[in-house]
Design brief:
single chain; 198 residues; 9 helices
Length: 198
Amino acid sequence: MDFRALIIILLSAVLVNNYVLRQFLGICPFLGVSKELGSATGMSIAVIFVMLMATAVTWPLQMYLLVPNGLGYLQTIVFILVIAALVQLVEIALKKYIPALYSALGVYLPLITTNCAVLGVTIANINKEYGFAESLVNAFGSGLGFFLAMVIFSGVRGRTEDSEPPEAFRGLPITLISAAILSLSFFGFNGVIENLFG
């Protein structure tokens, strides 16, 4: 396995193929939990964990159970069930060990189950025909990309809420405009990662 290829997969997942800012998956927690840095960070760490664990479970299920037995058509259902079980584990752990974060995340924590970015990563790993290690690197990079988007947008939202936008732009409109501008900035990374290593 080529270390350079793993670095390219990692950096591409964080910057070029960012699931939130480039592929527009996982927008619900992105808009809902990014108001405060603490809750944005907590949600991002939970998503990274779920992405990694979901990939570690779904890849072998797909390769060694579903495909060999001709059950590939059940992929989405099986992957959603795995993600739902992992989110329940995260929710139980946060409720027991970090109740403040559990309260701050509120309804958005169970929504990780329906976070299409998590499902998107697990399915993309299969569609791109990544091996197990490559899939884990892609999942970790995708989680870091989610973390980066959440933290940056948390700062942007803090600045926009402190400013005085015109009446028509207050609330959701200025949030969506800010998200669009942030998303455009990530399009500037196209071609950079592939050419980074010559």
